[in-house]
């Protein structure tokens, strides 16, 4: 019932904001053109299409807001006016009343915010789809940001996810590519990430881990700044962290006015992405411009600042190794190796012809190389690869959905900072160094150091285990004799069963014949 009501609301909202006209205007087909003329008859929309789409997404709730946030970074895939309007979803989602925020803090931490903090700003500084943020000052003078979960979010998300599950089942059963796309598994992954985002203790732990990955001990502190978690003021619905200040990465003119090199910033963004993915296997997976700032303080000028850690991704060693080899093969234009990797990983059926898959990948990717980022649309490349993959029954891997989304966000930000940034040339040396460290002598030494603690316990036991094994009586002949006896007994049982089956069939036939004679 809830799913049906939610679907009806979506239809009502779509009609209210004239999204039918928006969809039909983007389809180049005679039938769509005819339908567009019909729906426009007598009631042409007065509000710009981007505004209508933004208002509709805000009306439908957090899942749809997040969808709009991702779309806003893809200005090569959607019209510019729509992208600019959707960008407002990143920091202009209507806030909920401050008294509800104060009540939420008191329920979570056991005291009102005016008691817990020396100063608490009633008006939120930012409001997002899942939570909103208030600035405060601790009694020891530290400036902090307090993130408070929106009330009733769990029920809203459950209803939207229930609808998405129904749609996933329909897609899997009705669409030609439904089973290959694994829509139910993708929705299940999305379910996990959304519920993780509702637990602010988990977000705080994500923040703490990312801060540790870019601490001075790692030598990467010059790349990314992450706020410190104030654990004594955290709960499942409240997250208190160090207050960070900077310039939103999307405000290019302010960055240039602060004497920040945007070209270097673009290259650093690519390095941060590949470092998180391939070195740590743990990456910030919600890197839209509303969550990324740049420090304008003299001592940290030009450093990235990461915010909002509700959605993070993690990759296994197999995933990291497979992805790195794929990226390097693409950068080297080794399409034969790309085809081999797809077959070895099980993404395509094992009987797929390597030469045929190699030719298809080459036809998609070759036209895009040796161009600046302004002329390369990774989104378009992925779309063409998706269309090509239908011929080979390529299976979409749900565990990599977040990585694909993050890569698109990185590309969108890179295009804003430096239209001439060559994504391929920037990433290739880093990946080659990473692979050398993994498979070369340095990688061997690292693995030996990692396993040394285990070897110190296992090595002394080897002589005793070898002696025990060699001293054990040889049971081989006895086992072979027993297996021979069991096989003969099984054959006799099979013959007896066959004989009984024949007798039973004969008796049944005689009984039927006797009945027909009467």
UniProtKB/TrEMBL annotation:
Q: Where are the transmembrane segments?
A: 496-515
> Could you tell me which Pfam families the record lists for this protein?
ABC1
The pathway this protein participates in, as annotated, is: Cofactor biosynthesis; ubiquinone biosynthesis [regulation]
**Organism listed in the record:** Parapusillimonas granuli
Q: What region holds the Protein kinase domain?
A: 119-459
The UniProt similarity line reads: Belongs to the protein kinase superfamily. ADCK protein kinase family.
What is the protein's given name? Ubiquinone biosynthesis regulatory protein kinase UbiB
Q: Which UniProt keywords apply?
A: ATP-binding, Cell inner membrane, Cell membrane, Kinase, Membrane, Nucleotide-binding, Transferase, Transmembrane, Transmembrane helix, Ubiquinone, Ubiquinone biosynthesis
Instruction: Extract the CDD domains matched here.
Output: UbiB
Q: Does the keyword ATP-binding apply?
A: yes
One term of GO molecular function: ATP binding
Task: Please cite one Gene Ontology biological process associated with this protein.
Answer: ubiquinone biosynthetic process
């Amino acid at each position: 019932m809830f799913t049906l009501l939610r679907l009806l609301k979506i239809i009502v909202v779509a009609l209210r904001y004239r999204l039918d006209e928006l969809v039909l205007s983007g389809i180049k087909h005679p039938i769509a053109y005819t339908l567009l003329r019909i729906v426009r008859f007598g009631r042409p929309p007065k509000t710009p299409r981007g505004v209508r789409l933004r208002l509709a997404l805000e009306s439908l709730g957090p899942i749809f807001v997040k969808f709009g946030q991702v779309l806003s970074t893809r200005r090569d895939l959607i019209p510019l006016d729509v992208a600019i309007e959707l960008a407002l979803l990143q920091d202009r989602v209507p806030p909920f009343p401050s008294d509800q925020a104060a009540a939420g803090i008191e329920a979570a931490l056991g005291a009102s915010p005016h008691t817990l903090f020396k100063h608490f700003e009633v008006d939120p500084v930012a409001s997002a789809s899942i939570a909103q943020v208030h600035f405060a000052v601790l009694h020891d003078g530290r400036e902090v940001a307090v993130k408070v979960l929106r009330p009733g979010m769990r029920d809203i998300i459950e209803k939207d996810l229930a609808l998405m599950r129904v749609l996933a089942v329909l897609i899997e059963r009705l669409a030609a590519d439904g089973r290959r796309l694994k829509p139910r598994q993708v929705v299940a992954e999305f379910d996990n990430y959304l519920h993780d985002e509702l637990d602010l203790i988990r977000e705080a732990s994500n923040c703490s881990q990312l801060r540790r990955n870019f601490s001075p001990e790692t030598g990467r502190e010059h790349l990314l700044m992450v706020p410190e978690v104030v654990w004594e003021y955290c709960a499942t619905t409240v997250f208190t962290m160090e207050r960070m200040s900077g310039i939103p990465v999307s405000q290019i003119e302010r960055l240039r006015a602060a004497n920040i090199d945007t070209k270097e910033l673009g290259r650093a963004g690519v390095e941060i992405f590949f470092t998180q993915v391939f070195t740590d296997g743990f990456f910030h997976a919600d890197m839209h411009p509303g969550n990324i700032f740049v420090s304008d303080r003299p001592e940290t000028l030009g450093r990235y600042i990461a915010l909002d850690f509700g959605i993070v991704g993690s990759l296994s060693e197999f995933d990291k190794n497979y992805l790195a080899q794929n990226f390097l093969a693409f950068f080297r234009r080794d399409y034969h190796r790309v085809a081999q990797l797809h077959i070895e990983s099980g993404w395509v059926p094992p009987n797929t012809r390597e030469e045929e898959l190699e030719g298809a990948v080459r036809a998609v990717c070759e036209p895009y190389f040796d161009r600046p980022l302004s002329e390369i649309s990774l989104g378009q490349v992925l779309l063409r690869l998706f269309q090509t993959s239908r011929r080979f029954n390529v299976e979409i891997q749900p565990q990599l959905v977040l990585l694909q989304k993050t890569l698109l966000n990185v590309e969108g930000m890179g295009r804003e900072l430096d239209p001439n940034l060559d994504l391929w040339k920037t990433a290739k040396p880093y990946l080659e160094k990473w692979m050398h460290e993994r498979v070369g002598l340095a990688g061997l030494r690292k693995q030996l150091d990692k396993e040394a603690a285990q070897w110190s316990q296992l090595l002394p036991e080897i002589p005793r285990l070898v002696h025990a094994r060699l001293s054990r009586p040889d049971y081989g002949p006895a086992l072979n004799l027993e297996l021979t006896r069991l096989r003969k007994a099984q054959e006799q049982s099979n013959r007896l069963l066959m004989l009984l089956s024949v007798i039973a069939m004969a008796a049944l036939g005689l009984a039927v014949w006797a009945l027909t004679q009467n």
